Please model this.
Amino acid sequence: MEARAAEAKRGTQQADARMRGQSAKGLGLTDPAGARSLQDVKLAPLLLVLALLVGCVATGSHVMIGQARTPTDPSQVVVYDVAPAHYTAIAHVAADSGATWLLSDTAQADEAMRQLKVEAAKVGANGLIEVNLPKRNDIHQVQVATAIAVWVQ
Model:
């Protein structure tokens, strides 16, 4: 009889908690497995930081204007201030530094240029001409760069 009374009381407490917007876990009316939710709460800030960092990833793109070649090594892509005498245009390339407030303007420009070289290497270029690296967009905190990826003979 006492067991039925205790079960009825627990059911009443749970119903009262639902009416007040509280959970049964918050009242300690669940089994110890409910303690796992505390670990989930501790992980929430870490997951938020990871989500923000993923949103900060640099990206690149290209539009083909010539014949693609075998991909090259990005470290071998040369940036030319003046177009060389003999080259073949391969693609218009664009890249950005990724949206982040953690990097200085110089670091963001360096990241955009690094990503530009990666994009050029994907299409088989060994050079970049007509590089455009305008002032950073302060609204979105992104440094954007564009250029023409070329093969220099």
